[in-house]
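batch job 7 of whatever, protein = Signal recognition particle protein
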Amino acid sequence: MFEGLSDRLSGILSGLTRRGALTEADVTAALREVRRALLEADVALEVVRSFTDRVREKAVGAVVLKSVTPGQMVVKIVNDELIAMLGTEASVVDLNAPAPVAILMVGLQGSGKTTTTAKIARRLNQRDKRRVLLASLDTRRPAAMEQLAVLAKQVEVESLPIVAGQSAVQIAKRAMEAARLGGFDVVMLDTAGRTTVDEGLMAEAAEVKAATKPHEVLLVADALTGQDAVNTARAFDERLGVTGIVLTRMDGDSRGGAALSMRAVTGKPIKLVGVGEKVDALEEFHPQRVANRILGMGDIVSLVEKAAETIDHEQALRTAEKMRKGKFDLEDLSMQLAQMEKMGGIGGLMGMLPGMGQMKKQVEGANLDEKMFKRQRAIISSMTPGERKNPDLLKNSRKKRIAAGAGVKVEEINKLLKMHRTMADMMKSMSSGKRGGIGQALGNMFGLGGGMPGGMPQMPAGMPEPTPEQIAQIEKQFGGKLPPMPPGLGGPGGGKMPGLPGLGGPKGPGLPGLGGFPFGKKK
C-alpha cells in the first residue's frame, strides 16, 4: 500500500544522497517535495506540517550540512521521524490482566470488524495458547451473529450461543459470565457498527464498556478510507478511550495516509494490520520495519520471520546440502516454487529486500504470471519419480505424455527444463565458491535478458542494525547462530548485520524462490 509514497520519497532522498554537499536551500527544496508526497498519500495536513517541521529543524543544523555524508544524514533523519510518527516500538494485544480478559472491538460498518475479530481470536488461540470465546453484540445487521459463529468454527474457537431478543449489554454480560464459568482466558466482544459515527453507536458501545470493563478497546479501521479514518479514530478515542488500532486492507492500493496519520493524531499504537481475506492474514505492526520499507530499505527481519513460518527446516537443510554437492533435481525445484508461493511470490520477496525496488519493477514489467508457479508444479507432478530425479530422460515422447497429463503445451515443459538447468548451473557454480548477483540469476531464470542491474545491492545508508533481541529471536526460530552477512548485504566486508540462513554462509536453508542456495564459500 505504501508503494506510491515509497517511490516518491526514495526518488527525492536519493537525489540528496548523490550531492557532495548540501545547502539550506537544498534541504528546503527536498522537504517541499516530501510535503507534497505525504499530502498526495492522504496524510493529514496537521501531521504533515509537524513531520516536515521536525525534519527541517534537524536537517538544517550544522551537524548535517557539514557532515561527511550530508545526504545520508538527511535520509536517516527522515527515517527516524517516520518511525516516531508511526510509533517508536511495536505494540501487541495486552493480555496482562485477570482472566477472562475482555477485548472490545469497535469501528464503523464495513471496516472488516467481524472478520478481524476472528483473525485475532485465531492468533491468540494458536500463538499464545489462550482459550478464546467470541460474542457478537450486533443485534441490527442481519446474520451478523451467525457470521461470527461460522468464523469461530473456521478458526477453531468457541462462540457464545445465540439467544434472540437480547440487547447488546445483556449479551456482553452473558458472555463474561459464560467465560468465567467455562474457564476461558479471553472474551472478544464484537460490537455493532454504523455507516458513520453517530450518538446511538457511541452510546451503545459506551454502555457495553461500562458493563464489561474491557482491558483492551481495539478500533478496527479500513486503511482505504484515507483521512476520514483519522476523524473516526479521534471520535472513538474521545468517547471510548481506544487502547489500540487495527488497520484492515493494508494489502490494498490505498496510499498509506491513514496508517501514517492515525498514530500521530490519536497517540494510540497501531497494533495489528490485516493483509488479506484469509483468516491467517494478520500481522503485527512494526513501525521501524514499515518506515524502512517506505524508504526502500527493505524489511529483512520480517522476511526472516516469514521464512521461519513457511520453511520446513529439516527439508530445507537437506536441500541445501544437496545443492552444495551440485545436485538440484526437479523435485527440489518444485519445493522451491511451493515455498516461494507461500512467501508471496517474487513481488513479495523483492519488497522486503533492501534496495531491491528497481529489480521489483523490472520483474513486474516482465508481466510474470504468479500462477506460473502452480502450472510448473503441475508439470513436475505429472512426471515419474525417475524423471524428476533425472531430467535428461525427458525426450519428445515423454514430454508429450507429461504435457497431456498437466494440461499444458510441450513448449511450457521446455521452458521449465531451461529454468531448471539455469538454476542447477547457478547452484553448481556457487557451491564451488563463485559468487554471482541475485539480479543476474533471477534475470536469467525468468528470461528477462541480461539479468537485472546491480546484482545484490549494498545496504542503504541509514539502515538500522537489528537489535540483539531481534537477532536472538531470529536465531531461536532457526535453531542456531546465524552466519555473518556477506559483502554487499551488510556493507563492505560483511558488516554487523547477521546473515540470513542460506544467504550468509554454507549453513542454513536459504530463501525459497531465490534458490535456497548458500552464498558463502564452501568450507
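notes: The chain is about 50% helix and 5% strand.
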